[in-house]
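Quick board copy: two proteins, each given as sequence then tokens.
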Amino acid sequence: MPDQQLESRIGMDLARRAYLYDLLHAVFGGNCSPDFVAKLFGSQTREMFTCEAAVISDGDLSVDGGCVLAKMDRSLDDCAREVLACYDEHGDLSSDAVAALAPEMEGDYAKLFQIPGDCYVHMWESPYVGTEQTLFQCSTLDVRAAYHAAGLKLQAEKQFPDDHIAAMLGYLSCMGSRAYEAYADGCDSECRKALQDSKAFLEAHVLTWVNAFAQKVIERDARGLYAAFAQGIVMVARVDSVQLDWLMGHIGEKGLRWTFGNTRKHSTR
């Protein structure tokens, strides 16, 4: 691959992963405003998920899409199809449709993630890797330490579980933006550091439980929107675990920084 083409691909991959983590952070943080719902089902977001699904189907990075995932009743290919099917049904909504869907999503969010009952799903790591009813376990403190090491802190620290899925996705979004900006500025070592920290966090605190979380949402979400986006988390996280290795293996290659470093902000945005 020619250097300029490779650099453009790296920039687009970095931008897409930051965008998707930020989007999913908002979805599972309970943002149901009409403006956000319009963005969520807009053409740009659909394109981002389509590109992510293509990474699986094209086989370029050897992401295994066919095998049934641990703690799920489906494969990564199935997850990708469910996400795109959601866009086939709800993509490019009219303003009236957005106005109708936003309160429905708000009600579904409350039923699934806020009100104890038959449909309730835990949204934090500790019940999936430890004792179900225990908050703020050792893993929670490890998550908090990762936030602090990156210079980040939850506004409601010690009152809100650090290992909440929305907080974790927010961390990965911040680190993704940090990596993108560093790459755009030609700071390859800073970019690689952000990606290395993201990889370590992803493997230690997200991939360990996100499948089980998504399966519970699939089983309990009658409307299926949060089920689709829970599968979106699985898709993005699983692709990212492979894509991060590819990115770190190519960022900082001899010749790239000196040839194109000063033009990255123009070529990757």
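And the next:
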Amino acid sequence: MKTILTNKFQFFYATILLLAAFTSCIDKEDDQLDMRKPTDKQEDLAVIDGKIETFLSSNSIPGAVLAISKNGKLVYKKAYGLADVASQEKMTNSHRLRVASVSKTFTGLSIVKLVQDGKIRLEDKVFGEDGILGNEYGTKPYSDRVKKVTVQNLLHMTTGGWVVNGNRDAIDYKQEVSNKVFFDWMLDNATLTFEPGTQYWYINTNYFVAARIIEKVSGKSFYNFMKDNFLDELGIKSAVMVKNGLAGKQSNEVTYYGLGGTKGYEYNFNIERRDGDAGIVISAEDLLKFALAIDGKPSRPDILNGGSYSQFIKGSIPNPQFGIGILSWGDVRSFYGALPGTRSSYMIHNNGMAISLIFNGNADYTGNNYNNFATAHENLLIDILTKNLNIYQDIDQF
């Protein structure tokens, strides 16, 4: 179980480089932003539907929900396949789905909102006498490395670790205990292998800690902070926090289907612990609405001001492309998520196009070929955002 749930993002940095190459090869003939004449009703677009349906069938994924915007307008939304295989329930645009690590963008935005409001600084220490969390967690004296960790280190994945038992992410251990007990155990037992700020290392535990900072500083639960500070303002009503097990499925939430080594683990772990790094359940339409509120463009209001947005998308010296829960390079801002039975994404392009695409199935990320699947997913998003741009109607379905 620990091996399956340990972060499997070895492909992560490689796919960033691949995406940079792809975005430099956009077909100029397709880069047209003139819309068709207005109409009140969305018409099916065979060229888009064919791409999604082919991807689903090629990868044995039951269903997907898609939302596409153009210059801030929701010009296309569609559901494909099944929300639940056993009952043959069809996927709809209103279905909620886990977004896994895309939740990190919500956590990152929450932290930067606290910075913008003057509540904390990215340079603030997290632990120790001068830290935001002080000595509240753990039972042993903190190491020098732990006391050096800043808020920025957490969000940029440059803490240097929080690993146990052969460099495995601590988040996957002690599944049966409360967050407080886990946090105590993690600080007592997990290792920071590198000096904070010197190495990029994608460790989910970093965003677990970030969520605790949000709660400490705001005096609210992580979810209520998001709700009060941007979800309600944006009109995002579908976003909820994930619950454990099949019995914990939220209303109108899909069923998830893993493959290979992940099959059977879709509901067999403590996902409620993963609030800060993988805890959001949301519709594709609302995920796109959220993405457009962090795009730095004037077509729709943004949550952050210009200076805060620059901080949000800025990476670190070890990894300039990994911002505060958002990837930024070339013409693209994006993030991806993966759990057993879950694959999610949003992507924002500088040409005015944006997309959210969420699946209730996922390839086997414990195997050797997951990078091929991840790259195909990435290529699909790029293809939709950079080709056939004149096919969309002049409508706004938000």
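Board note added afterward: The CA atoms of residues 241 and 280 lie 5 Å apart.
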